[in-house]
TrEMBL record:
Pfam families: CP_ATPgrasp_2. Residues 448-507 are annotated as: Disordered. Residues 497-507 have a biased composition (Low complexity). This is Circularly permuted type 2 ATP-grasp protein. InterPro entries: ATP-dep_Glu-Cys_Ligase-2 (IPR051680), CP_ATPgrasp_2 (IPR025841), UCP005522 (IPR016450). It comes from Teichococcus oryzae.
Length: 507
């Protein structure tokens, strides 16, 4: 809604659609979506709370909608930011000009645990470090978007973006006749083309691409297998690969096959027991040697995590100015670095107004939302900050936007963020929208699935179709609109009982 209570134009048609259907019908669709997700196996895993670790991430059936104009501005800012982050990585592992210029403290980078000396002096194939990025955005007003954090290591969640759209097409095919929604189903094709584009110069013929997973006990394993299947490439574990003469090979029934590009979903420290943790059973011995020899490409590059470190985050706007000679299109959230004495004193004096985060944390863990915390919790965090100030940053609690969400059978306002996925190879590609995450608890600002959050389908509305113009849901779409008529797939076969189909892990 606008401030005056009027419905914003992108939501006009969906508001009429929802009003006509009623909340009882929405609740029925929510239950159908839950059974559908469990049947497919779209789950995530939480191993720290006991009980069955496999969980269904809640899916809200009311979409989050952006206009084409809003998305165009966001996409320009995202492309600018990803280019700056890649330039920063090339610089800090190379000439270190931004450090020499005094634009970022040397210790913040060179003594950071995310900075890998093994990458110094080496340029990845294609010169790209962050091939796949997930940039988290929050909205505070009609034209005000802020970057909450940059995910440059192994960002997850894109499978939910795709499965959410698939579910909406199954559940609400008629809604797609009333909107011209930009498709997202081509993401796997875009991802594969991007991965092929960074193949090393030593590659002969069609590049061999694989997805490297830690295995089925990883919380994001569903996504690993999903993306490998959608791209038509092999899903491998460390034991399926070996290095000989600085070349990576995959074991197959027809004998060894050379691998050119590895989309790795394994953290840096487990990638290669010869270069990092010697006790790692997940990686491939000699992988870094093959990488540095230019015989294989890794996405994302080891050491890319220094670019999304929360202590480095405040300097990203300066990276845009330094490397691109441009003003940032997307702004950062104001950030206080607790290792600085003045910032630390301000944070300790205002814990009831701030959000405090671990500088190298993720998943919503190790975090204090000051306005919603107790006096005891704030006192405990104050002690933590005094003991290890360099581990923490703090930000003001923004007035995050809310969207209509189905909660306990009723439509209510809940806070959201947005994670678009940006692909960087020979060019930058992104599908319109991204993964909308929603904080399902009333008043909560934490959207992480491991902390009780859910997801929504994200619609970017194109201009309305002209009379007689067809709208396609895309190559993976299950409904197609032709001249205002919907042709849907036949009904799904009977679904198994949800309790007997637990699915696989996803975060």
């Amino acid at each position: 809604m606008h401030a005056d209570g009027g419905i914003r134009p992108p939501y006009l048609e969906i508001a009429r659609f929802l009003e006509a259907g009623g909340q009882a019908a929405l609740e029925q669709k929510r239950r159908e979506a839950e059974v559908l997700f469990r049947r497919i196996g779209v789950t995530f895993a939480v191993y720290t709370e006991g009980g069955d670790p496999e969980r269904l991430i809640p899916f809200d059936v009311i979409p989050r909608i952006l206009s084409r104009m809003e998305w165009e501005r966001l996409s320009q800012g995202l492309e600018q930011r990803v280019r700056a982050l890649n330039a920063f990585l090339a610089d800090v592992y190379g000439p270190q000009e931004i450090i020499k210029a005094g634009r970022i403290p040397a210790d913040l980078v060179l003594r950071n645990e995310g900075y890998l000396p093994q990458m110094v002096g080496f340029t990845p194939p294609g010169g790209v470090y962050t091939v796949i990025s997930g940039i988290d955005l929050v909205r505070t007003g009609p034209d005000q978007f802020y970057v909450l954090e940059d995910n440059c290591r192994t960002p997850s969640g894109v499978s939910y973006m795709l499965e959410n759209r698939e579910a909406m097409l199954r559940l609400f095919p008629e809604a797609f006749t009333r909107h011209r929604i930009a498709p997202v189903s081509h993401y796997p094709e875009e991802l594969l083309e991007t991965l092929k584009s960074i193949a090393p110069s030593s590659c002969q013929g069609e590049p061999c691409v694989v997805v490297l997973t830690p295995g089925p006990y990883n919380s994001a394993y569903y996504e690993h297998s999903f993306l490998a299947d959608e791209m038509g490439v092999e899903l491998v574990e460390g034991a399926d690969l070996f290095v000989r003469d600085k070349v990576v090979y995959m074991r197959t029934t027809a004998g060894p096959r050379r691998v050119d590009v590895i989309y790795r979903r394994i953290d840096d420290e487990y990638l290669d027991p010869e270069a990092f943790r010697p006790d790692s059973a997940l990686g491939v011995a000699g992988l870094m040697e093959a990488y540095r020899a230019g015989n294989v490409a890794l996405a994302n590059a080891p050491g890319a995590g220094i670019a999304d470190d929360k202590a480095v985050y405040p300097f990203v706007p300066e990276m845009v100015r330094f490397y691109l000679k441009e003003e940032p299109i997307l702004q950062n959230v104001p950030t206080f670095m607790c290792e600085r004495e003045a910032d630390r004193e301000h944070v300790l004096a205002n814990l009831d107004k701030l959000v405090v985060k671990l500088a190298r944390g993720s998943g919503g863990y190790g975090m204090l939302v000051g306005p919603h915390a107790t006096e005891e919790q704030r006192a405990e965090f104050a002690d933590r900050i005094r003991a290890r100030p360099g581990d923490y940053i703090a930000q003001p609690t923004l007035a995050l936007s809310t969207v209509p969400t189905l909660c306990e059978g009723k439509v209510a306002s809940r806070h959201v963020d947005l994670r678009p996925f940006i692909l960087f190879g020979r060019s930058i590609r992104m599908v319109p929208g991204g993964l909308t995450r929603v904080a399902l608890r009333e008043g909560s600002l934490v959207v992480n699935s491991s902390q009780g959050g859910g997801t929504k389908d994200t619609w970017v509305l194109d201009d309305p179709p002209k009379p007689g113009q067809a709208q396609s849901a895309g190559p993976r779409g299950l409904a197609q609109t032709m001249d205002g008529m919907t042709q849907s797939m036949p009904p799904l076969p009977p679904l198994p009982d949800a309790a007997n189909d637990p699915g696989r892990g996803f975060r």
